[in-house]
Amino acid sequence: MTTTTNRIAFQGEPGAYSHEACRKARPGMEVLPCRTFEDVIEAVRSHEADLAMLPVENSTYGRVADIHHMLPESGLHIIDEAFVRVRIALMSLPGTRLEDVRHVRAHLVLIPQARGFLTRHGMTASASADSAGAAADLARDRMPGEGVMASELAAEIHGLEVLARDIEDHHHNTTRFLIMGRQPDYNRRSDRMLTTFVFRVRNIPAALYKAMGGFATNGVNMTKLESYMVDGVFTATQFYADVEGHPEDPALQRALDELRYFTSSLDILGVYPADPLREAQRQAG
To answer: What range(s) does the Prephenate dehydratase domain occupy (predicted)?
Structure first.
C-alpha cells in the first residue's frame, strides 16, 4: 500500500511566495519548507512529501535560473500549474508607523519592483537572501525603524504589522509554479490541458525548424520553447516546451509523432490543466 504524507514541499522560509502558492493550490495540505530546490525534489522522491511546488518563471524576470535543468532529471512529473500574483507588502514591528521606517530589507528581485514607493517615502533598501527570512529575522531581532518587503503571509506568520499593501510599481507581476509528484496524471481534468516535454534534435540540417513544423501545420499552440546546454558543452542542447492540448488530441498526437522523427530523445514531463489565470491574462492581453 502506498503511504501518503499530505505534505507539499517548497523552497524558502515560511511566508515565502512559494508558501503562498502552496496555500492557494493545495490548501488542505501541510507545507514542508526546504532550503534548496534540490531539497524540495528529494523530499518528494524520499516520500517525505507527496508534492513539490517549484517556481519556473516570472512575468517580469523570466525563467527561474537552473530549474529547467532539474526537472527532466528529477524523476518527478508535472501534475498541475499555479499562477501567483506577486503582491508586495511593507511590514514592521507592531506599533511602528509608516513614517518611522527608514530602511527596508527584501529579496534582491523585490527591491526594484517597489522602487517608486521607496523613493516617495525616503527609504533605503538592502538585499536579503529571502524576504520571508528577513521577516523572521526582524521578528526575532526587533530592530526599530526597520521594515521588510514580503508577502502578507510572512507578516501573518511572523507576527509583524502590515504598514502598506500592493506597493509594487507594476501590478501585473506573476510567478508561475509547477506542482510535481512521483506519479503522472494524464486524465483530462479540464477543457484546457497543457503538455510539457523536453527533447533533443537529431544532428541533421534544419532539424529544429523541421521539428517545429508539425505544430504549425496541425494548429497546435506552443506557449513556450526554451533551449539550454546540457553536459557543459555548446553542442549538446536540450529544448523545453509547453504546448496547449492533451497528447491524445489528434492534432497534438500528429505533431508529436512528427517531432519524434527529428529528435534523438523526447520525454513528456507532464500533462495538466491550465491555471484559470492563464486564460484571464490571455484575454486581458
So the answer is: 7-182
Prediction pTM value: 0.90
* Distance, C-alpha 263 to centroid of its chain: 28
Catalytic residue chosen out of the listed positions 10, 177, 197, 262: 177
Q: Is-catalytic flag, 175?
A: yes
Instruction: Indicate if 177 belongs to the active site.
Output: yes
Return averaged pLDDT per consecutive 10 residues of the chain, 285 residues in all.
82 95 96 96 97 91 79 95 95 97 94 95 94 96 95 97 95 92 96 95 83 94 86 69 97 96 93 88 63
Phi, psi of 170 (to 5 degrees): -125, 130
Q: Which helix (H) or strand (E) holds 164?
A: strand 161-164
User: Among 175, 195, 196, 263, which one carries the catalytic annotation?
Assistant: 175
Q: Cell numbers of 110, please?
A: 523585490
